[in-house]
């Protein structure tokens, strides 16, 4: 982003060129976006170290290009016209030809967490069991309240923007990989996706890796946000595996109810009403987050992440989501430039300040 106007600028191709020896940094759909990917990590400590390293590389490259790196779900101010900003790669040109009207919206940035699976069959069973918890992951990660210089009123404006894509939907319950693959083929055959990679379910089997891929979250404003999300997803998958092995059925939650809960999570983040997908009742988002943490306790024991996730979750409850912190920064900034400088500082920070938490933080 431009440090004076706050506008997104097409600096990503030059940044990627400067980091040509770093395979974890790649171009994205639009020229003001850049993607990073960690290697396979054995624990959250490795995730943190790699994210710290990659963000430092991006900050250095951006400084050479003359812009700022900001981790937000959508650009908070102006961005180049989408058609002129699309990266010059064959796959992206095909998407422009197939879905030109979708480019009237700003580009979106998400955080995708992959968890390794020994088989695709187990992966399908995991998807069926984690789908009711996707709204809580979105509420926790919401980090896109601003667009075109205005507060959208949403904690995650990325979610409704991204949901314009025809396959950006909650996953269904599939009995096995045969049914899953048939659903993917149907969407491709009907033109809703160019290929299996273009089936953008909020959680899916990765078309490229032996993983379950959870795609519902906004990109994390800070490294802490991303590490927390990774810990939550890892524990959620661990519990789903245990539930399947114990013969427990996947919750028969209607997909439409999950979609409604996702909209509520995107609208309010952690600060308003949400929907309990099992009962259909309106429940405070913070209570739903506590319900998620309670559900995850056995999974966190399995993964060994209890202490780190509890620390980060406490910080989130006290300090707010990325959307909450963005609004605080905007209120404290006299200009667009001051705001994006604050966002860039949060993006580059390796660890949020330690918070003192008493027994009444819930």
UniProtKB/TrEMBL annotation:
Keyword Nucleotide-binding: yes
The protein's Enzyme Commission number: 6.3.2.2
Alphabetical UniProt keywords: ATP-binding, Ligase, Nucleotide-binding
Catalytic activity annotation: L-cysteine + L-glutamate + ATP = gamma-L-glutamyl-L-cysteine + ADP + phosphate + H(+)
Enzyme class: ligase
GO BP: modified amino acid biosynthetic process
GO molecular function, one term: ATP binding
UniProt cross-references to InterPro entries, sorted A to Z: GCL_type2/YbdK_subfam, GCS2, Gln_synth/guanido_kin_cat_dom, YbdK
Pfam families assigned: GCS2 (PF04107)
Record Gene3D superfamilies: 3.30.590.20
Main function: ATP-dependent carboxylate-amine ligase which exhibits weak glutamate--cysteine ligase activity.
Protein family (similarity comment): Belongs to the glutamate--cysteine ligase type 2 family. YbdK subfamily.
NCBIfam families in the cross-refs: gshA_cyan_rel, PRK13517.1-1
Protein name: Putative glutamate--cysteine ligase 2
